[in-house]
## 1
Amino acid sequence: VGFVPTMGALHKGHLSLVETAAKECETVVVSIYVNPTQFGRGEDFDRYPRNLQQDLSLLAAYPVGAVFAPTDSEMYPKGFDTWVQVGQIAEPWEGTCRPGHFRGVATVVLKLFNLVEPDIAYFGEKDYQQLLVVKQMVRDLNIPVEIRGCPTVREPDGLAMSSRNQYLSPDERRDALVLFQSERLAQQLVDSGETDAARITQAMRDHILRVPYAKIDYVAIVDPETLQEVSTVNRPVRAILAVRLGGTRLIDNMEITPKPV
Ligand code: AMP
C-alpha cells in the first residue's frame, strides 16, 4: 500500500506523488484533509482552497484504490489531547516562522499512518523540512512505514507548484518567479566558483528584493540533513527560502551542488 497524504487542491505536484506510488505499490491511497492543527492563528486555514469534487475527478484518471477525506470531528473528536513533538529538526525555519506547525503535521501524519497502514508514504521535497521532520518521527517512534521523498514539480517557468499559488494576483504570480530565480542564481554563483554561503544568500536576497513589496521570512544555505546553516559550499547543500508576496507566503528549496574539482 502506497500512501500520499495531501490537503487537496490537487495539482501536478501531488499527482506526481500518486504516479510514483502507483509504480511502486499494488494499491495507492490518497488522503485529502486540510489539517486545522498545523495552521497558526492568523494563517490561511479558513481560505485554504477546498474542492473535493474537482480533486476526485483529477484522481479518477489515476490508479487510486481509495481516497480518504475525513472530517475534523473524525480526526479530532471531542477530548482529543495527544500530540507528537519532533525535536531539533522541527525548530528552525518553518518551525520558527510557524510555531506549532510541525506539531500539527507530525500528529496528523502519524494518525493518518495508523489509519491507512501504508507500507510506503510519499512526500514532496517541495516541503523539504516537513520531509525531514516526518523521517525523524518515523525513525524515532519505530513507525513501520518507509518514507520516500519525491522531486519538486514546477510550472514551465520554474515556480514550484503549490495550492497556495491560487492566491496570487497576476502581478504577484509574475513576481513569484524570483524565488526560483534566486535559487538558480545560487547554483550559478557556485558554478562560477563562489563558495561563501553568506555572499550567496546575500545575492539571493538582493534578487528577491527587486520585488519591492516582497517580505523575506528566511533565505539560507543549509546542510541537507540537519538544516543547520553552512558557511562554505564545499559539498551538496540545500538553499531554502520563505517569502511573502502580499498576503501569500511561498516556500521553495533547491539542492545546490559545488562543481566537481
Ligand atoms: P500539501 O497538499 O501542500 O500538504 O502537499 C501534499 C504533499 O504534496 C506533500 O508531501 C508536499 O510536499 C507535496 N507537494 C506539494 N507541492 C509539490 C510540488 N510542487 N512537487 C512535488 N510535491 C509537492
## 2
Amino acid sequence: MAPATTNNNNKPVTKSGPVPFKEVDDGSVPDHTPKEEFGELVAALPRKQQSILELRLYQGFWLPEHWVPGTIVFQRRFAPRPDDVILASYPKCGTTWLKALAFAVMARDAHPPAHPDHPLRRLNPHDCIPFIDEIFAGGEDAKLDLLPSPRLMNTHLPFTLLPDPVTNNGGTCRVVYVCRDPKDMAVSLWHFLRRRHPDLPFADTFESVCDGTVPVGPVWDHVLSYWRASQANQDRVLFLKYEDLLRDPAGNVRWLAAFMGRPFLADEEAAVQDVVELCSFEKMKGLEVNKAGTSGAYKAMPRDAFFRKGVAGDWANHMSPEMAARLDGVVREKLQGTGLAFS
Ligand code: A3P
C-alpha cells in the first residue's frame, strides 16, 4: 500500500486504490464513440425489441444495442492490470451489493467501514465503481487509466465475451461473479423496467426471460459461462449466489476478501461485521444519497430503483405456480449435468 499523504483539507489520503470512480471522472465526454467505428457491423446483427430496450444478438448473447460497439473495443483493446478485479453479474442479481461490498473490503485501510465519512455513505456504489459496458460504449475508457491500482470495475457481459487477456489462463486479474434464482431476477428486472415503462405487463418480461431475449440473455448461458470458468480456475473466478450472501453475509465477505487478495486478519473480525453492516440493504436503502438523483452510468434510472426489497423468494408474489415451474424447468434443463442448480 502506498504511503498516506494529506490533501488540501489536511485529511490523510492514499495514492493506492480503490478510489471512488467519481473522484477521478471529470465528467468529460469524448467527441467520438465506438458507435461511429462499428455502426455497420451492429446494423447487420439480429435485432429484437424488449420493452424499452433494443437488443442485438452478438456472439450468442442479446446485448443492448448501444453496448455492442463498446464491447468490441473492450474485447480488442482492454489491457488488464495484474491486480484488477472485475465484478461481473447478470443484471438484477446483486450487482449494487457486490460493488459496495468489494469497495468496502478493498478500501478498508484508507476508509474504515465504520467511519462516518466513508465514501459509501455519500456516494452510491455505482459512483464508486465504473461500469465497463457503459464506459466503453461511451468511448470513455481512457478514464479507467486514471484509477490507481488495484482497480475495481464491473460488467454485465458473459465470461465468454470478456477480452482474452482477462479470460486466458496466463492472466492474473480476478473476476467475481454474482448470480441469483432466475425467478427473483425476473421479478426484480420487471420492477426495474417499470420505472421507465409503468404499463409493462409482468408477462412480457417473464416471456422474454423464458425465451432468452433479455439484456445479456439467455440468463442460463450467462450463468454457465461464469460457472464453467470458476470450475476451471477457482483462483481467478469466484462464483457467488445472492441467496448465499443473504444467508451468510460475513462468511461471504471473508471469502470475497481472501479471493481479492485482501484477506481479513484474525484481529479484523469487527471490520468484517462493519462491512456487512455498511453494505446491508437497510443501511444502503436508508442513505440520503441512495434515495434521490441518478448515478454513474445509470443516468436514466433513479438511484432508489436499485434498492427495492432485497429478499429471496419475492417471485412467489408475482408468478403463478405454473409460471414458476415453467421457468424452473427451462433453467433446470439448461443446467443439467453442470453441477449448478437454483431450485
Ligand atoms: P429486488 O428488486 O429483488 O429487491 P442489481 O444491483 O444487480 O441491479 O440488483 C438489484 C437487486 O439487488 C434488487 O433486488 C435490490 O433490492 C437488491 N439489492 C440492492 N442492494 C442490496 C443490498 N445491499 N443487499 C441486498 N440486496 C440488495
